[in-house]
């Protein structure tokens, strides 16, 4: 989405409307295909956490989610700008609704793709009886809601860090 703005403002004024449209949507299509493929690969590796977990997955996911916060803020600002433009020009209201739904779906897809590691690793920890079911339910549910997924990642990290401290003390 941010690539489109960069392309829009860097195009020369002498190009035709069809060239402008192609140059505007080509980066979006390429980015969309690459993101979809990498998202699917990420889901596969995330589901592997159920059977072959990585040890520091909570810490890594928490860092990734916190690094993505500026991206989501920029995404929100751009969506507000689009909404303002579509309110000012009433002919574009339907396009605004479609774009808003697409932006929300894209943002939620990013949220789920980054949450899959925490979800699957927590299932592994409950399945192997390392954590109790009720102790993991709140951060697990948080992974499915935007903004709360960051809070859930921090809760998972704190819980895992405390478990490692208790394990080291007992050894």
Blueprint (SSEs and pairs):
Elements (H helix, E strand, L loop, with lengths): L1 H9 L6 H31 L9 H11 L1 H20 L4 H35 L5 H10 L5 H23 L1
Helix pairs in contact: 1-2, 2-5, 3-5, 3-7, 4-5, 6-7
Overall 3D geometry?
elongated
The number of E-state strands comes to 0
Mean pLDDT: 79
SSE order, one letter for each helix or strand:
HHHHHHH
- Helicity, in percent? over 70%
The whole-angstrom Rg is 21 Å
Structural class call reads: mainly alpha
Number of H/I helices: 7
Describe the structure.
It is built from seven helices and no strands. The mean pLDDT is 79. It is elongated, with a radius of gyration of 21 Å. Helix 1 packs antiparallel against helix 2, helix 2 (17-47) runs parallel beside helix 5 (93-127) and helix 3 packs antiparallel against helix 5. With 171 residues, it is an all-alpha fold. It has helices at 2-10, 17-47, 57-67, 69-88, 93-127, 133-142, 148-170. The protein has one domain. Helices cover 81% and strands 0% of the residues.
